[in-house]
Amino acid sequence: MANKLDIARQIINEVDAQMAELFVKRMCAAELVYEHKKEFGLPILDQSRENIVIEKNLALIEEDILKEYYVDFLKHLMSVSRAYQYRLQSGLKVAYSGVEGAFAHIAAGKIYPKANRVSYSDFKAAYNSVQNGECDVAVLPIENSYAGEVGQTMDLIFSGNLYINGIYELEIHQNLLGLPDATLEDIKKVASHPQALSQCHEFIKQHNFTTEESNNTAFAAKIVAESNDKSLAAIASAETAELYGLKVIKTNINKSSENTTRFVVLSKVLAKTQTMSNTVLMLTVKNSAGSLASAISIIGKYGYNMTALRSSPMKKNSWQYYFYIEIDGIVDSENGKQMLEELKKVCDILKIAGTFAPHTTLR
After folding, report:
1. pLDDT tens-place string over residues 326-348
2. Where are the alpha helices (DSSP H) in the chain?
């Protein structure tokens, strides 16, 4: 015989299913409202209309104690509806770290050509902007073919609540940028992001340049443009030179011609489409002999090919590590669910960090 909790859960499940269908129907109506407002040049927020809707619907609730909660429910629902209409009006808001011309800015523009790209001072600020609803998605670098993984991005994904909904590869060409009247012989110091300095280490050493680290390549270019100092140069993209009125003194100065950065798209919801054929797992293993080997063995046991395995130290726990794993295939199948259940036995933390289509190159 079912107890009260079982009965309540059954009712909630039934109501939630109905509400999901009605929510989609309501948001489709909100889209029609937006199209009408766009056609007639009306503002999205119409406070008087919202007040009428609340007053009208409040009469449908008989229990006085529930009325105040229903008002809150309606206000939040209208807020969500407005947010959707603003998105239709203004386009997708894409967060990136850096200033205009940074490689993340370039990548975001190639992934979302019509979107509004929003600049943030650092990776964490861009990430948080999606968590708190300021932006819809964030585009952040996660790995470079020469300099390796971007630890800060990996840490944010491991500790945060956003999902990877795409991994895109952008070929990086680093260039030496200076003031319009500067020559190679004038340059004494170069400024750029630490990874860019690392990628161009041999060129820097060859010319005996001193270095100055910057938050990103485009910001370094901005500093050079404002410095009025011919001895200072930046390492950045050719697009950045055009933005800040600089001259490309030397092209393709990175050590390896195979210089590619992988960018992740992060959002609040895990994408599940046919094109998202690969999965990212992040985990920590139990502190016992062979735990990592057991985890890897379990992944192989269920027929998943592991295409990437990286470790990174946990910031709050000295000498402990979490692992980033990319596998071929998705895990929402029965086979995948069984694998996850078995992995839980050897893992302290296990999370599906996202899905992506492999080898998606930005042109």
Report:
1. 999 999 999 999 999 999 999 99
2. 4-40, 47-58, 64-90, 103-111, 123-131, 151-159, 194-199, 201-206, 217-227, 238-244, 291-301, 334-344
